[in-house]
Amino acid sequence: MDPILKIENLTISFGGIRALNKVSFEVKKGAVYSIIGPNGAGKTTIFNCISGIYQPNSGKIFFKGEDITYSKPYQVAKKGIARTFQNIELFSHMSTMDNLMLGRHLHMKTGVWRGATFIYKGSKAAKEEIKNREKVEEVIDFLELQAARNQFVINLPYGTRKLVELGRALALDPEVILLDEPSAGMNMEEKGDLIFSIQDIRDDLGITVLLVEHDMNLIMDISDRILALNFGERIAEGLPEEIQKHPEVLKAYLGEEEKIESPLPSETVS
Prior knowledge:
Blueprint: E1 5-14, E2 17-27, E3 32-36, H1 43-50, E4 58-63, E5 66-67, H2 73-79, E6 81-83, H3 96-102, H4 112-117, H5 124-142, H6 158-170, E7 176-180, H7 188-203, E8 208-212, H8 216-222, E9 225-230, E10 233-238, H9 240-244, H10 247-254
Parallel strand pairs: 3-8, 3-9, 6-7, 7-8
Antiparallel strand pairs: 1-2, 1-4, 4-5, 9-10
Helix pairs in contact: 3-6
């Protein structure tokens, strides 16, 4: 089976500092593929290249066999790749419902603001509004955000805000979702719920998940395969049990020259 996402020799520099150096990997459809590495390893840079925020100096990015290397962010989203961010990018003084509706903007032929302000019963805009609200309600039910539906985001706990951002990405109806530090700021119970949500995203919705995360327990529990980076270079790739004991990975995280049999720390700086 051809990979749904393929990265070939991705290289990008900032001010003379090479953030990524010929990084390559493939993600199979329906997988949870995780990227780990210490702070500054280049994890989020990969996400920014895939989503069109950064343009690499060299290398290629293929989505379902199509070269999307130099596509703009809205073009990448329209093709079916959604993402979340390390720092929450929501409209704080809008409700959960309104934030999720903004995730439907690429599916709205009438436009977000026109659809919201010039609706009359039976109009094309009204029918489109109903259809998109039904989709958003499905996302709210899926993530169990019913209690937050009509609340302003600014009044929600941090962990709930992270779920709202995840919901907005899901509202796009993506084929691939890029999750950048989704568990940051969550307590242990919220992280447990997140694990089930990510598994359901893959199993029930059929969405391929590309994950950057600092919580090693979460990574090891949920990943099908893991790519480890250090200083912008690929140092290992494989199954969770292989990565957990890989000498180069242990060296990158723990500064050890020799192989260490103990598992990686449950949380590391990313």
